[in-house]
Amino acid sequence: MPVDLSLYLVTDSTPAILKGRDLCTVVEEALKGGVTIVQYRDKKSDTGDLIDTAKRLHEVTKRYGVPLLINDRVDVALAIGAEGVHLGQDDMRFDIAKKLLPKDAIIGISTSTLDEAQKAIADGADYLGIGTMFATPTKTNTKSVIGTAGTQAILSAISDSSVGTVAIGGINHSNVQRVLYQSQSPKKALDGVAIVSAIVAADEPKASAEQFAKLINSPAPFALTTQAPRANEAEALLHEVPQIVRKMVEVHPLVHNMINFVVANFVANVALSILMVLLLTINRSGASPIMSPYGDEATDLCKFDGALLINMGTLTSESVSNYQKAVKAYNTRGNPVIYDPVGAAATEIRRNAVYQLMTGGYFDLIKGNEGEIRQVWGSSPVQQRGVDSGPSTLDGQQKAKLARDLARRGRNVVLMTGATDYLSDGERVIAVENGHPYLGQVTGTGCAIGSISGCFLTAHRSDRLLAVLSGILMYEIAAENAASKEYVRGPGSFVPAFLDELYAIRTAAGKGDDSWFVGRA
Ligand code: 3NM
Ligand code: MG
């Protein structure tokens, strides 16, 4: 019978985690809450104590019909008749353990690279413990932090194998659904998650396990199935754009902008032109006690059915934790979150911010210029296919591929802006040629696309790529219309004309008039 790996408890007996409680009591509570497999992991105790505790644990797990595995110590597993062992890369070799243990014993192997995973599969491992997912204080000597991107790359490469898989490291209630969703490769998903502190150190291990079981068995609030391309995908999408713009005007969505102060005024004017309801949270430089709790405010703001835009243009020391609070609140509700990693590669601090944000939350859309998108791609702990070391300017095909690969990796939508914009949901890639060079000469025009996208993602949830495409087309066609006005002589006169044209399209769409679009895209 296959082992149920879905909620895999790994024990820890260190005082900081066990907090003076009896391990067997904690494990029994976790079992009541729905843990499906238990690994006894104790790196410190003497052999005699290990065997005593393992024996007591086994009595408990047997009552719940759940297998007990022993970390590292094949001798302890044999001594108490445990159902199996879990072996790290530096523990006993697989073939030796296999020979010593009963035929039907479960053997799991820790793997953090594709080579290790393939070797464990070839050896005949029952399951792989894949990690480290996120850096964790529970185990500080981990070999490498691979995140969902690294896990997805391993799953994708071993998708022909039926081997079981669990992710481990830093998994908790607020990230477990994203871990399962973003790690998934087209043909292989994780079978479960392995948890230490979020259950063992919890005040109520039973309630914690119950909560995990509930989260694991329901889809992530932001989960969406990507749409398979149709025969004439680009045409089919274009055909739908005017109705999506009409829908947006009807809904007039709310977008919560955590945005930089340079562009706030312009973005606010764009929002007004198209009737978007706008909330601005400006990052001020310097610590301000009144501004600092703004991340917490998101808990209330996300109750309105709107989107969140994280624009890190004027990053401060407090920004990242505020962003993270806000992203968490919106992710929990499944409301759209847009990330504009402004200046992502510019400084060490920004590169770290990108890394922290990317590993800490789900973004429905990542929007940036080529350099920013390249940085986001390369910030993954796993360097893949060397985009980083590629030429400094990518050609069209490479840009399309980068947008698609990044979207596929994060299971979201990516918009790479430029003279040609590349938009992808991991399956479809759309190149948009609209727009005008003046857009590049006015500050805030790129940032406003983040807001516009939030607006359209809120109005149209079922196809995120179509939603974002509709927004950019409305925006860039308005820019073309504005630039063609006789009185527009440069970026200065362009701005008011651009706002007028956005307003004109919104007004037309509100009356059901699609003529602004016909023949323009
Ligand atoms: N093994 P927590 S990470 C036991 O990467 C263990 O192989 C890891 O603890 C690995 O759930 C880890 O408290 C600790 O973060 C995971
Ligand atoms: Mg080990």
Ligands bound here?
A: ligand 3NM, magnesium ion
First-residue to last-residue Cα separation: 57 Å
- DSSP summary, beta strand count: 16
The CATH class name of the largest domain reads: Alpha Beta
Quickly count the domains.
2
CATH homologous superfamily grouping of the largest domain: Ribokinase
- Beta-strand level of the residues, as a percent range? 5-15%
Q: Which CATH-level-2 architecture of the largest domain? A: 3-Layer(aba) Sandwich
Helical segment count: 20
The secondary-structure class comes to alpha/beta
The global form is: elongated
Domain Thiamine phosphate synthase/TenI: 7-199
Function: Condenses 4-methyl-5-(beta-hydroxyethyl)thiazole monophosphate (THZ-P) and 2-methyl-4-amino-5-hydroxymethyl pyrimidine pyrophosphate (HMP-PP) to form thiamine monophosphate (TMP).
Cofactor: Mg(2+)
Pfam families: HK, TMP-TENI
From the structure above, extract its key features.
single chain, 521 residues, alpha/beta, TIM Barrel, UDP-N-acetylmuramoyl-L-alanine:D-glutamate ligase, 2 domains, 8-stranded parallel beta barrel, 8-stranded mixed sheet, 16 strands, 14% strand, elongated, binds ligand 3NM, binds magnesium ion, metal-binding, ThiamineP_synth_sf, hydroxyethylthiazole kinase activity, ATP-binding
